[in-house]
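ping. complex inputs:
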Amino acid sequence: MPPEKLSGKKLQVSGVVQGVGFRPFVYRLAREHHLAGWVCNTSRCVEIVVEGRPASLDSFVRRIASQAPALARIDSLVVEEAEPQGREGFAILESRRLPGTEALIPADVSTCADCFREVMDPADQRYGYPFTNCTNCGPRFTIIRSVPYDRPHTTMAAFAMCPRCREEYQNPEDRRFHAEPTACPVCGPHLWLEEGGRVLESDVLEAAGKLLRVGKIVAIKGLGGFHLACDARHHEAVANLRERKGRVAKPFAVMVPDLNEAERLCHLDDLTAHLLLSPERPVVLARKRDHCDIAPQVAPNNKYLGLMLPYTPLHLLLFSHAPAALVMTSGNLSEEPLVFTNDEARTRLRSLADAFLMHNRDIQVPCDDSVVRPGAGRFTIPLRRARGFVPQTVSLPVDSEPILAVGGEQKNTFCLAWKGTALLSQHLGDLDTVETFDYFQLAIAHFKDLSRKDPRVIAYDLHPQYFSTRYALAQEGVKLIGVQHHHAHIAACLAEHGRRGPCLGLALDGTGYGPDGTIWGGELLIADLADYQRQGRLAQIPLPGGEAAVRDPRRMAVAYLHAAWGKEFAQKARELGLIFDPLEGRILTHQLATGLNSPLTSSTGRLFDAVAAALGICRTRTYEGQPALELEMAAAEGEEGWYPAPLHADGSLLVLDTVALFKETVGDYLSGAAPPRAAARFHNSLARLLAQACAAIKDRTGLETVALSGGVFQNALLLTRLYDLLSEQGFEILTHTRTPPNDGGISLGQAAVAAARLEKG
Ligand SMILES: [Zn+2]
Ligand SMILES: [Zn+2]
Ligand SMILES: [Zn+2]
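pong. complex structure:
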């Protein structure tokens, strides 16, 4: 038989294919097929050149697509014929930089089972080593300085590999083959503990564990920044942490060593367990058990606990010495950005922590823990998108030139978009502190570098006071595209599902700039990516004192009482026990009577504030969204009752009579309904009213798809109720599953709107 003729192929693979064990996979696959050639990371993609028998080549190409490593995501695979050159053997070539890079950066991955096993195995060379990682796990995004993703471009460049690590790194049969951050006790980073003026270099984890056991607060340098940790069962330690951090009531996250311990504290349905164990290892909200013995101060007035499992060897090893449940909260003073360098920790966290567990692997990009909420065992609601998820991209249904979307003001993220790809930043926090705004600008520069994009188009929110808006307007030589806040919410939800609309959009949140000079926040829109029309809204209510009413839910309650009962409002306020000091009471009354300094709002968030305050569930707000959260938490389970409330027409605009809904709720409470029952009925009624309004708009327009967005959809009770009613009506319902429904998703929506407008011309 004559020897079979050889042929060759050149492959270009793009997507998430760097830092995920893709080249070793290609190497092994090529060897298995007896193919010669090479594979190489470029700053645009992974390039593969292979030659061999045609049948083997075909099988090789098929298996590239079908058997790629678990962490890889192939977005495109371009295969061309190539002239065979008579090559011998298969090699991994040095990375190449190309102009106009498209290569996507991998996200940090929680430690894999193999690495966890090694650090717990006394016979292993990495026994007890907190920086163990491999091709399948470890730091990525948080250590990358520039692309392509190779060790010299990471903060691991400071550590020269020892011969043994280098051998593993170069051995295609090894799990650490081209694991860029690989390290061992001989050559890698190390830990130490600083306490008072002392520095402890040995038995560090034992010492840290001991401090935690006696109720001390330890600052721990993790993957994306510092955590402040304390024993979650130690009441005094938790109270101490709250006081030092200046965080009154906002829930803390708790890390436990494993799923068994999580199960002891909380009810875990399948979805919750799945999310806890996912490689992104987010904080997952799980329902507390009745006998959960975590200090109540960890998550006051909350039925849920934010749980997470260890995602680095450091965490796992610490649990050999530390209490079995640790509060792990971001290392910062309330509202300031996350601390991520050793020097900053020593200064900014000095008054917060009793000791510092530090190491010498630098964090290039700070990244908070991500937070997700499993709703009723069937919804995954992302609350904060950061570590583990960023910088995974989202596909946009519209191609465009590069766009920078600067996001909103609270829970800010920004977004770079180009050619149908959206790259969202990690959660950056509220932009109204100097430190956060400074970091926002730095992060934009870093993302532009990583993606090699310098957008000439900037999308921004219409609110003139947002720092993100001011930043956008200050840029020179760019095309600016202003996007209405609630349109951005709906566009984000559409874009996440790869949809262009049109759809019916329910955008329910706290505050957004309305183009009619009022404050929006309970909006029914007809929207596609490019445009929107307002079809309906909640009843408008004055915000007596403006910002003061946003911060004080009692003021909102009184504003609603005034709208519902007119002159009798003061009597009702007294019945409800809503007491103000005499001067404030007089000013408030004057504001309500005259409309002085009382802008109108259709905000859903403010309606929740008013109900929470009226029912006595939450009358002091110490963090954004607290009254709404506590109202949801207070709601009696299994309650099916509801209050009637009508729809009105205001010209072509549909108005949901939420004043009537408020009046019914409070009336029920005043005639003896317990707050949990009234709270549940309020949720049921609002869901009914919204569903009724959707049905009316469907009749009018024929639209059968509805997108649900805005911070109110972090509320699992309302979401579940509304979802079921809309399903009964035959709607196709789009909800957020990859980006937050809150303002963390605004930048994605802005980018999608800008892309669609550019396309329209
Ligand atoms: Zn691993
Ligand atoms: Zn080593
Ligand atoms: Zn919003």
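The mean pLDDT is 95.
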